[in-house]
């Protein structure tokens, strides 16, 4: 990158058509030969690969600007077209202009009043940002109504457009069979009537008798006025349609005469886009950099699709010119003209309906200009709105509970590739030298250095020692990622802002990114082979922004629901449940072991003594993680009331609703009231405490945990048998025609609904019976009760009965004619014939049940596939429509053109993450007043913080310093 | 000034804060209760103000994108299953993702239009009275009134009307004969045939004996609406619990909001409809905004996503109704009417937008987000919208 050049900033972009003269002016060369390279492999002068069009091969010099490949952007050339051709993109507009303007004087066929009206409409639509084409269409419609031009009085003809690029003028002319038609019309309808005499005809039409005779003998063609008179007198039509083809050159001449002020009425900008420029006389040739040729392994060159198309155009263009000079017949010229038009058309758009696409030799349709811009992988969406970046890494993720949620484990081989630019000063000179001397392969090493004169040197294993000594203040060193650096971490699909968060680096061995399991919910990640991306930030502004705004702990609260999205999950929840549900006792060793990975290094006062030894309770240990002044009361997922007073968990079970992701009460309160740093510490500690406790108790699940005693199985069979009987009864009443239909339903629908209801109840009953036989300490029950994973329904299906399988919300009704499978009689309405699975997963399904189950399962899979694409598009549209909205300093929500959309965001101007969901404003004035009056503040600082005079300190780096300098760690340890 | 008994000094310190009226009142109340001194009142006010300001959205927050994500992200969790029951088991309503897409698309007619009709006091309390309204709303077709039979020999269509149903559906008319006459009149008007009415029997036939015409007439007869609103094919009446007792509420399949509002006995202030365009034309744009919020909210809630904050739904509704008419989200609405050529080209139908821009000589002055991403400039949102630059601290300020 040349640092001497100041980067240019684009101020605005002006759109318009280009004057053919401008093409010629900007062209580096005229292209006349269709060949690209000569036998020696050098580009041919004035050929398609002319070196003046830019360079693609490294080492060569551009003949126009003198720069090398990479810095030369390329230059346009041009082809002089032998005859004008139509630009495909504007065929509709050309048609409109032809229809709306006079064929003689080329003025728009609208009176001054009408023009004023449309001018007014144009201004209005421009102001409102609507589609100008609607006004143009209306104006043309108005102009087409005129039979004659209001300016020169010339009669107007209809224009027919044959797709894609042919135009005809349709004129009504005298048919060649005029004499026969007149004679036939003069014959009477009935045989009795006298035929009309020639004199009578002459009298009626006012044409001389001799002329009439001449006309009837076909010697004289009647003039228009005579024709009309004849037609009227005899009530016949003497005309036929004559299609007069308009050649592009005719159209061009026509358009050249349209005055500027007439065009403005149609919303066309006259100074930027003259209509005749829509018909091309010169074709710009894109620079070679836009259509690079690839050298294959065998030394053969493979040309770009655009080059192929240009070759075709030049060949036809030349043949055209030769033929015309040789004076070839009009028919051949027209054919060649059409061929030239076809090639220019497909050069610009190869997906025109009605035109066969131009194909490559292999039969693949060519990708020409339009196709390059369009669609997801096109220039706009694929290359301009989304760009490829350097300093990024991607690998598989795996869990690491020892990391903080703010951190990410980065494999050393990634860390040695990703670099951070370090400006060497006197203060970090020593570090910089150490990095450089470690070389590119040793871990905290360096890959490049930049001398103050701007020269960039690669650090190699050979030169690293030498280079390290040369490093001075003022140099730049591209050092490896080290512990504590901030990086951006992402998992696709990036559906919300928590899909991209900033983490602190912890360099680790092996090949996977490591993350704390509590950040799985925001990323929606699991470890079954998921991969994630990491981006190393390259300037100080970005790093500061990432640290302050994007760090994981800043994202604990989700703006979607205003509750925490990061919190304990799965085993963490089972762990806290086991720890707090029955409030078990622990001796000193056990208690210390549970709190091992937390900040707590002293146990609270024991809860009591057992056999002469002190013990601590689970709730007590959990309370150690809470702030001392926390007061909370809420309902837990398990069903009991959790009471926390002064930071002590007095009662209740801590489960999903307490500490879970997606609105765990304790985490939510901590993040909102005590700040995100406190919440981060709490989540980390809950996770480790929970893991310790689940390991202490032991937690596993096996098939025996879902098996029920034989007696219970018999009862289940009985209930299902009862249900079958009831279904049979329903069917019998239905068949007897005695079933009463529900209001608004047919009898058939009613029967289906009732059967579904009965069978659903049977499944639930079976579940209830199964449930009675599970102890409260059954691991599956623990998980379902605590909200860790699974539900009672899952358990019912495993132990009791799987239940009715459904496709499209009804019992399974598809398959053979009148029956689902050939195992059943036609029109069998019974439960088992329509997908009721009476067995449980542990018991095993019969083959027929298995088949029905697979049908239901398949529907689920299809559903998910359809859903992802639909909701993806919905999201894209929503983002596109709302992306410009932003709150302003005055509290309004406006878009980037300053249109006010809301006066206060969400009607009250508060942020969803900062208010408790149910409360109106979430501020407890009484509590604040009490605190002020009691004046219980530890220090003046905490009071200032309370009053808002002083901001809460932000914790910038968590462990970075300590991890980088092991001395700090050992100092802390030596304190004891 | 305030209704609370506080000193002027206290009032001065409280009024000095940026608190909204509601919170100021709260502060006055608690100061009054506690009889706090002016200094204490000041501290309370400042502490409350600090909390309040903390809950406000940050300036330059890209709320649009956040809202879009907050609605789009749970989209992956919505069901595709179109039909499911919403409260009333008898009426199918489009739900889940298809309904959400329909709302955001601002479709002219929803897949399953329905209305919830609340009734005025007397009608709401009495089932009979409520039924009167039902018959005025529900389209009554011939099949509901009696049996049709065709006499091919005489080329006649014969209708045997059921007197009980007639009396039930025309409760204001006393004689069954009269009602049958009315029915016959409607048939004459809409089919253009002469009818013969005898008691509850109505007979008619084609002018010239033709088997085809006869069948044609029977087909047409089936579509004739004898009473009620053409668009409403079914009405379900339900008893619902309210704060003060019970009331009858009507749920309809099909909607004609304007017609229903003018029916006697309908409580227009509580009656709603799920077609946002009908609400817009009957009640105006503010009501349309309200119904968009309400409908998106219930759609999400029905799927167990009740945790999506309303503010996001409000923003979507606000942008859809910002210009005083309902605009859809997508190429035909908001995204298609953007000022910037590049932003439009980057969304959909790339080439056409570029060609049109050239013809109209448009200028893209690069204000929006997409355009600036394309040209490689910082976007004017969030931290990109701040023009403050950090300067070096002067020595004097360091000294203090």
TrEMBL record, chain A:
Keywords: Cytoplasm, DNA-binding, DNA-directed RNA polymerase, Magnesium, Metal-binding, Nucleotidyltransferase, Transcription, Transferase, Zinc. Signal peptide: none annotated. It is found in: Cytoplasm. Residues 276-580 form the RNA polymerase N-terminal domain. SUPFAM superfamilies: beta and beta-prime subunits of DNA dependent RNA-polymerase (SSF64484). Binds at least 2 Zn(2+) per subunit. It catalyses: RNA(n) + a ribonucleoside 5'-triphosphate = RNA(n+1) + diphosphate. GO terms for biological process: DNA-templated transcription. It is an enzyme of class 2 (transferase). Its cofactor is Zn(2+); Mg(2+). Part of the RNA polymerase complex. DNA-dependent RNA polymerase catalyzes the transcription of DNA into RNA using the four ribonucleoside triphosphates as substrates. Belongs to the RNA polymerase beta' chain family. PANTHER family: DNA-DIRECTED RNA POLYMERASE (PTHR19376), DNA-DIRECTED RNA POLYMERASE III SUBUNIT RPC1 (PTHR19376:SF32). This is DNA-directed RNA polymerase subunit Rpo1N. It comes from Haloarchaeobius iranensis.
TrEMBL record, chain B:
Its main location: cytoplasm. Keywords: Cytoplasm, DNA-binding, DNA-directed RNA polymerase, Nucleotidyltransferase, Transcription, Transferase. It comes from the Archaea. Pfam families: RNA_pol_Rpb1_5. It catalyses: RNA(n) + a ribonucleoside 5'-triphosphate = RNA(n+1) + diphosphate. Residues 56-340 form the RNA polymerase Rpb1 domain. GO terms for molecular function: DNA binding; DNA-directed RNA polymerase activity. CDD domains: RNAP_A. One of its GO terms (biological process) is DNA-templated transcription. One of its GO terms (cellular component) is cytoplasm. InterPro entries: DNA-dir_RpoC_beta_prime (IPR045867), RNA_pol_Rpb1_5 (IPR007081), RPO1C (IPR012757). Its EC number is 2.7.7.6. Signal peptide: none annotated. It is found in: Cytoplasm. Belongs to the RNA polymerase beta' chain family. NCBIfam families: RNA_pol_rpoA2. Part of the RNA polymerase complex. This is DNA-directed RNA polymerase subunit Rpo1C. It comes from Haloarchaeobius iranensis.
């Amino acid at each position: 990158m040349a640092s001497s050049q100041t980067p240019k900033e684009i101020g605005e972009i002006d759109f318009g058509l280009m004057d053919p003269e401008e093409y010629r002016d900007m062209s580096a060369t005229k292209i006349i030969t269709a060949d690209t390279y000569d036998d020696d492999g050098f580009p041919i002068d004035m050929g398609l690969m002319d070196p003046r069009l830019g360079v693609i091969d490294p080492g060569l010099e551009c003949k126009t600007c003198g720069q090398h490949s990479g810095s030369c952007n390329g230059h346009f050339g041009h082809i002089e077209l032998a005859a004008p051709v139509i630009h495909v993109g504007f065929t509709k507009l050309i048609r409109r202009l032809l229809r709306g303007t006079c064929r003689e004087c080329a003025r728009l066929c609208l009176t001054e009043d009408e023009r004023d009206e449309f001018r007014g409409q144009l201004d209005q639509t421009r102001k409102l940002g609507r589609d100008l084409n609607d006004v143009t269409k209306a104006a043309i419609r108005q102009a087409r109504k005129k039979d004659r031009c209001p300016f020169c009085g010339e009669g107007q003809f209809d224009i027919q457009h044959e797709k894609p690029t042919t135009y005809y003028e349709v004129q009504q002319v005298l048919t060649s069979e005029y004499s026969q038609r007149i004679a036939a019309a003069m014959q009477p309808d009935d045989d009795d009537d006298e035929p009309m005499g020639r004199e009578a005809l002459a009298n009626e039409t006012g044409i001389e008798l001799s002329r009439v005779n001449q006309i009837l003998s076909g010697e004289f063609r009647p003039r228009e006025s005579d024709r009309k008179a004849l037609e009227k007198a005899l009530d016949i039509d003497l005309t036929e349609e004559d299609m007069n083809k308009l050649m592009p050159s005719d159209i061009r001449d026509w358009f050249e005469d349209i005055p500027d002020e007439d065009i403005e009425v149609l919303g066309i900008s006259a100074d930027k886009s003259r209509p005749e420029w829509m018909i091309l006389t010169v074709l710009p040739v894109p620079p070679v950099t836009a259509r690079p040729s690839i050298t294959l392994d065998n030394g053969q060159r493979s040309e770009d699709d655009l080059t192929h198309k240009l070759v075709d155009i030049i060949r036809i263009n030349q043949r055209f010119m030769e033929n015309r000079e040789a004076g070839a017949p009009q028919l051949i010229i027209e054919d060649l003209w059409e061929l030239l038009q076809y090639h220019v058309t497909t050069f610009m758009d190869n997906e025109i309906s009605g035109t066969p696409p131009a194909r490559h030799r292999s039969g693949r349709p060519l990708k020409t200009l339009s196709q390059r811009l369009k669609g997801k992988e096109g220039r706009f969406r694929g290359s301009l709105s989304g760009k490829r970046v350097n300093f990024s890494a991607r690998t598989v993720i795996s869990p690491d509970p020892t990391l903080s949620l703010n951190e990410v484990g980065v494999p050393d081989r990634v860390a040695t590739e990703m670099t951070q630019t370090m400006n060497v000063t006197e203060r970090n000179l020593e570090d910089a030298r150490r990095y450089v001397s470690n070389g590119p392969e040793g871990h905290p090493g360096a890959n490049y250095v930049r001398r103050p004169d701007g020269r960039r040197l690669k650090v190699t294993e050979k030169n690293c020692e030498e280079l390290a000594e040369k490093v001075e203040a003022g140099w730049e060193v591209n050092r490896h990622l080290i512990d504590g650096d901030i990086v951006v971490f992402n998992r696709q699909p990036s559906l919300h802002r928590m899909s991209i968060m900033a983490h602190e680096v912890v360099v680790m061995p092996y090949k996977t990114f490591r993350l704390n399991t509590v950040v799985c919910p925001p990323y929606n990640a699991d470890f079954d082979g998921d991969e994630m991306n990491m981006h190393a930030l390259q300037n100080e502004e970005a790093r500061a922004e990432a640290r302050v705004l994007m760090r994981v702990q800043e994202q604990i609260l989700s703006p979607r629901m205003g509750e925490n999205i990061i919190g304990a999950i799965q085993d963490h929840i089972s762990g806290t449940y086991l720890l707090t549900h029955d409030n078990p006792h622990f001796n000193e060793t056990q208690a210390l072991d549970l709190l091992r990975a937390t900040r707590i290094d002293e146990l609270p006062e024991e809860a009591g003594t057992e056999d002469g030894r002190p013990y601590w309770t689970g709730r007590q240990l959990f309370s150690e993680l809470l702030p001392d002044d926390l007061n909370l009361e809420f309902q837990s997922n398990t069903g009991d009331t959790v009471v926390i007073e002064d930071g002590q968990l007095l009662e209740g079970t801590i489960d999903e609703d307490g500490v879970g992701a997606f609105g765990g009460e304790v985490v939510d309160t901590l993040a909102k009231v005590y700040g995100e740093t406190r919440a981060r510490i709490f989540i980390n500690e809950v996770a480790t405490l929970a893991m310790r406790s689940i390991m202490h108790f032991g937690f596993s699940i096996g098939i025996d945990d879902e098996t029920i005693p034989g007696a219970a199985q018999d009862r289940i069979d009985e209930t299902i048998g009862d249900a079958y009987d009831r279904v049979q009864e329903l069917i019998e009443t239905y068949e007897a025609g005695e079933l009463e239909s529900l209001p608004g339903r047919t009898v058939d629908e009613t029967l289906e609904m009732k059967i579904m209801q009965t069978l659903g109840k049977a499944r639930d009953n079976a579940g209830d019976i199964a449930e009675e036989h599970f102890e409260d300490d059954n691991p599956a029950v623990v998980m379902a009760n605590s909200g860790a994973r699974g539900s009672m329904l899952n358990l019912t299906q495993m132990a009791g009965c799987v239940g009715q399988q459904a496709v499209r919300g009804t019992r399974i009704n598809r398959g053979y004619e009148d029956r689902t499978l050939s195992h059943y009689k036609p029109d069998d309405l019974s439960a088992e014939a329509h997908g009721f699975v009476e067995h449980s997963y542990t018991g095993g399904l019969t083959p027929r049940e298995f088949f029905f189950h697979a049908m239901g399962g398949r529907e689920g899979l299809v559903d998910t596939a359809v859903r992802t694409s639909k909701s993806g598009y919905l999201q894209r549209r929503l983002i596109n429509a709302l992306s410009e909205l932003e709150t302003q300093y005055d509290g309004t929500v406006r878009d980037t053109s300053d249109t006010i959309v809301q006066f206060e965001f969400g009607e009250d101007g508060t942020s969803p993450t900062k208010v408790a969901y149910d409360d109106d404003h979430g501020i407890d004035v009484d509590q604040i007043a009490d605190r002020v009056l009691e004046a219980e503040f530890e220090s003046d600082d905490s009071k200032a913080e309370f009053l808002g005079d002083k901001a809460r300190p932000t914790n910038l780096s968590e462990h970075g310093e300590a991890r980088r300098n092991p001395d700090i760690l050992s100092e802390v340890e030596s304190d004891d | 000034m305030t209704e609370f008994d506080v000193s002027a000094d206290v009032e001065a310190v409280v009024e000095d804060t940026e608190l909204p009226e509601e919170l100021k009142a709260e502060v006055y109340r608690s100061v009054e209760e506690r009889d706090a001194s002016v200094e204490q009142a000041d501290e309370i006010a400042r502490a409350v103000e600090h909390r309040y300001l903390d809950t406000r959205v940050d300036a330059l927050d890209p709320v649009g994108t956040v809202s879009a994500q907050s609605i789009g992200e749970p989209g992956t969790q919505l069901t595709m299953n179109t039909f499911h029951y919403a409260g009333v088991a008898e009426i199918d309503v489009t739900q889940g993702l298809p309904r959400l897409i329909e709302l955001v698309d601002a479709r002219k007619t929803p897949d399953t239009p329905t209305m919830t009709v609340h009734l005025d006091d007397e009608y709401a309390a009495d089932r009979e009275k409520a039924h009167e309204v039902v018959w005025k709303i529900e389209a009554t077709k011939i099949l509901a009134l009696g049996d049709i039979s065709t006499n091919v020999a005489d080329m006649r269509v014969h209708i045997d009307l059921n007197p009980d149903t007639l009396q039930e559906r025309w409760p204001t008319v006393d004689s069954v004969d009269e009602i049958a006459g009315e029915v016959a009149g409607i048939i004459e008007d809409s089919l253009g045939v002469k009818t013969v009415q005898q008691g509850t029997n109505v007979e008619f036939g084609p002018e010239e004996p033709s088997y085809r015409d006869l069948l044609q007439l029977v087909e047409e007869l089936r579509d004739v609406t004898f009473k009620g609103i053409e668009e409403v094919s079914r009405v379900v009446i339900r008893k619902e619990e309210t704060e003060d007792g019970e009331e009858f509420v009507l749920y309809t399949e099909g909607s004609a909001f304007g017609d229903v509002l003018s029916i006697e006995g309908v409580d227009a202030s509580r009656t709603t409809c799920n077609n946002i365009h009908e609400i817009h034309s009957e009640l105006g744009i503010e009501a349309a905004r309200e119904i968009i919020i309400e409908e998106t909210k219930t759609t999400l809630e029905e799927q167990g996503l009740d945790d999506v904050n309303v503010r996001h739904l409000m923003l979507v509704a606000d942008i859809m109704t910002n210009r005083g008419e309902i605009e859809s989200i997508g190429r035909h609405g908001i995204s298609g009417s953007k000022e910037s050529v590049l932003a439009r080209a980057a969304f959909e139908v790339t080439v056409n937008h570029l060609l049109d821009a050239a013809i109209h000589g448009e200028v893209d002055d690069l204000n929006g987000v997409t355009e600036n991403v394309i040209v490689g400039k910082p976007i004017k949102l969030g931290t990109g919208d701040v023009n403050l630059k950090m300067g070096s601290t002067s020595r004097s300020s360091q000294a203090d």
